[in-house]
Amino acid sequence: MSAIVSNPGQYSFYPSSMVSDWYIWFCELGYPNLDINRYPDGEWEIIEYYNAPIVPSLTKWNRVLYGIRNVVITPGIVEKYVKQLDLHSDEIWDKYDHKTEELEAEQKALERHQKETVDRAYEAIRFNPALMERMARGGITEMNIPNIRKHIPKSLL
After folding, report:
1. pTM over 0.70
2. Which among 47, 43, 37, 36 has a CA at the least distance from the CA of 69?
3. How far apart, in Å, are the Cα atoms of 90 and each of 2, 46, 84, 93, 137?
4. Does residue 150 share a domain with residue 97?
């Protein structure tokens, strides 16, 4: 992990109207296409330049991470956010692959639970001729708990 050694300041190759005081940090981290845009109310965001920030009116950019409030802009925070945003990092892809595996396992467990519930309901209906008859007359709503309760003798409740 590389540390940022310089203080924020104007990057000498670009006009001060285009890049922020923190642009040099991103250059030192190896991300010259990123910068910080700060608003008067204290909110700030990380932006990405799509072409070199030379002519402000021709520079295309987009927000990458925005809505950051009550966080002081420090080299450590900048480095943390940049590392989290780097899609070329193997750590990021490993994290998302792990999350995908968890979601797939959860989906399979949900499908298995649904199938088991249907199988239990089928077995309950198949071996209960009175319930089959009620369902033939009243439809699937006879499987609802309040309807089943109506047919249980009060002595068994």
Report:
1. no
2. 43
3. 17, 21, 11, 5, 60
4. yes
Q: How many CA atoms lie within 13 A of 84 on its CB side?
A: 9
Query: In this predicted model, what pLDDT tens digit does every residue of 25-79 receive, in sequence order?
Result: 888 888 888 889 888 898 999 998 888 766 767 778 888 888 899 889 998 999 9
By CB atoms closer than 10 A (0-12, 13-18, 19+), residue 50 is exposed
Specify if 12 maps to a domain. Answer: no
Domain range for 104: 91-156
Q: Is 68 helix (H, G, I), strand (E, B) or coil?
A: strand
* Cα(121)–Cα(154) distance, integer angstroms: 23
pLDDT tens track for 65-121 = 888 998 899 989 999 888 888 767 777 788 889 999 999 999 999 999 999 988 887
Is 1 within the bounds of a domain?
A: no
